[in-house]
Amino acid sequence: MKPTNQPAPGTVMLSDFLCFAVYSANLAFGKGYKPILEKLGLTYTQYITIIALWEEDNQTVSGLGEKLFLESNTLTPILKKLEALGYLERQRDPEDERQVRVSLTKTGRRLREDGLKMDLVEATGLAPDEFDNVQKAIVKLRNNLIESVQTGD
Question: Which domain of life is it from (predicted)?
Fold first, then answer.
């Protein structure tokens, strides 16, 4: 019996899954950013960590983790590496020794000049209004999924 390349009627294809579309789009973004980030010696996760600190410097590690949707066991090695590269520093909060605060160094702030030039908006092929609509729809999707998991629905 010969294998067929045709799925059985009613078969749901991988390409039909929204989760796969989002996952594969994320991989495509990673590939798009990779050559740009390699010039800076950063991974994508390190880059978004720095962006979050450009947005709000001197954050607690826990607050930064929440913003990035990263657990501390994932975030801590990223912060250590960025600290070793000279982009940020970590210090105990003098008002609450249990908290660690993360701040950009001058080198980390200077990285912004190169970092802000990195954007794949044009590569998406989306018009500005389409880009905004897709971004907002994905944020809504993410927030709804998080809320659903938290409420147990």
Answer: Bacteria
